[in-house]
Amino acid sequence: MTQRKLRLGAFIMATGHHIAAWRHPGSQADAGINIDHYVQLAQTAERGLFDQVFVADSPGQRHRGDEDSLSRQGRVSYFEPVTLWAALSQVTRHIGFVATASTTYEDPYLLARKFASLDHISKGRAAWNVVTTSADNVHGNFGLAAHPDPAARYARAHEFVEVVKGLWDSFEDDAFVRDASTGVYFDPRKLHALNHVGKHFKVEGPLNIERPPQGHPVIVQAGSSEDGKELAAATAEAIFTAWTSREEAQAFYTDVKGRMAKYGRRPEQLLVLPGISPVIGRTEEEARAKWAELQALIHPSVGLNVLQPFWPHDDLSRWDLDAPPPYYPEPPQGVNSRAHVVIQLARRERFTVRQLYEYLAGARGHWVVVGTPAQIADQMQDWFEHGAADGFNVMPPVLPQSLDEFVDLVVPELQRRGLFRTAYEGRTLRENLGLARPASRYANPAAQAA
Ligand SMILES: Cc1cc2nc3c(=O)[nH]c(=O)nc-3n(C[C@H](O)[C@H](O)[C@H](O)COP(=O)(O)O)c2cc1C
């Protein structure tokens, strides 16, 4: 039996995941709109035999805050994911491309068409990160009076994904004969209109592009609420998630995979990929010094901006950074629950204001592992072998530097342990991830078996 291998995705945040990364000498400050930078990152990830690269996305500016903190944000200008990946697919051969697109703010026909194109352009390496958009300040870009609530967003998301999958099946796999001698280009009996009529969408079809090489681009999901887990159990083939302890990650893993049977799915049809932000040093001291160097680059107004949602009515700029906050708030509405755990910790440990924002701002609450390549590999192995992860979304704190370090130092360590591939197994992203190619809903079962 072949040993189970862990899956690796590179989660690329333009200048790096650390909130102050753009100020670090190892980063590319204009990364968000620097195509050469992304070419380098995709090629580095492919050199490291990563399964996929991924960019997060939101259809609008997310930042709130005063002019000073806004002026110091490094994440206000960046490429649209599908166009970015289409370009990068031409300078790589193996790596997969996960593009984020919103079921709340996009249109299913146009989205199905874009991702089918990306799958053809990349020769079967496309994936869609299905998000309902968590930002509550982008609805104005789409003529809506308010951001729809989570239940409404997820109800729309379920139907959206079904419509998109149906449209991808418009042409059967063998619809195109292109026989110059008979003059027959394709078989119209193998082209199907969807004629979908649902609560949220009415879509005729068919799609104006043939079935994607992967049948369907890989479906990824990134929400961890009850509704998010149901959507993943029903439709996703990979789920991105954020945990900082193995126990929490195990509970999530068991929970989400346990929901799949009622949708007629098996646990291995969904890969659970938590995030890890590795700060790598050749020695432990070097790694700790690197982390401290990054934390010191957080400008106080940027750090305080991270804390502002907890104390919405206070002028935080008057606070002493090196003393604990003057008081602790009751949990305000709309601030995520993970951050509340951090506030409790800060209260218990008597964190100063600076320590508190450094804790929250470092990797936005994701799992940060500071250490040598062997220590980082130990942690990944531990989660992988104890039912907490099928692989990881690697979140380099500084780009390009930290991705190079991971590929040069941690990947060989994982390979030595037999945990990670030494060559790509397949041609498509599905083949590399070990995911089956979905049959068309119109395919003849007898022909399938033959
Ligand atoms: C690794 C990761 C990546 C994510 N990427 C995005 C993204 O690009 N765009 C987005 O709107 N939400 C993104 N999310 C957030 C989720 O899609 C979701 O909106 C959020 O977790 C709130 O949904 P929930 O209430 O179901 O957890 C991401 C979450 C994780 C863990």
From TrEMBL:
Gene3D superfamilies: Luciferase-like domain. Signal peptide: none annotated. The keyword Zinc does not apply. It comes from the Bacteria. Keywords: Flavoprotein, FMN, Monooxygenase, Oxidoreductase. The keyword Glycoprotein does not apply. InterPro entries: Diverse_substr_monoxygenases (IPR051260), Luciferase-like_dom (IPR011251), Luciferase-like_sf (IPR036661), NTA_MOA (IPR016215). This is LLM class flavin-dependent oxidoreductase. It comes from Aquincola tertiaricarbonis.
